[in-house]
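Meet the record:
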Amino acid sequence: MLFYYIRHGEPIYEPDSLTPHGELEAQALSERLCRSGLDRIFASTSNRAIMTAEPTCRGLHMEPTLLDFANEHYAWLDFTVPNEDGIGRRWVFQSERARALFASEEIRALGDRWYTHPFFRDENFEKGIGRVYDEADRFFESLGYSHCRYTGKYKVTEQNCDRVALFAHQGFGLIFLSCLLDIPYPQFCTHFDMCHSGLTLIDFSPEPSGEYCIPRVMTLSSEAHLFAKGIPSNYGEF
């Protein structure tokens, strides 16, 4: 199986939709995906994710299956921290204090139980990580891959050559991919990111025995579709 994780195009958060530039990104992405083809398409219940998937769905004459657990609203409730000035909240990976702690030896030493650090005792990280792991494991189980949690391996219960896409978000995606790959969230979210309409490709090819697979990231947040159409990326004109 090839699994595509795609962040939505440039958004308007209120109301939940895409900017005109985000619509161009979604169209360019659809041309890329329609060339390779997909067997199944999933999307967050957020409108900006659904709108990003729509051109691809039209081009392939498919309907998306909506996954409410991928809606970024839930991730926002569990993975944000108060701003330093005490007004409002931000993603934990955007907090300078939290990022410094994430990079520390004491957090690295805690491994998958990083959320037990006293600095995070008033936050919902343990609950949030548990929720995403559980939902992600059920999702991949339905695709034929049973997660051997914290080992980086999946038992192949139904080997297939399907191409499966999930259109969702950055904040949720950093948690989801860290769970999928069994990389502790503090390390994943401080060293990796996703651009608008960026495509991450993960190969679920089995090991030679055929019993297990170790997913491999083949590309992370690729913007090749934007370059192909001459559309400016998150990193400026080119």
Observations:
- The mean pLDDT is 95.
- DSSP finds nine helices and 13 strands in the chain.
- The longest strand covers residues 216-222.
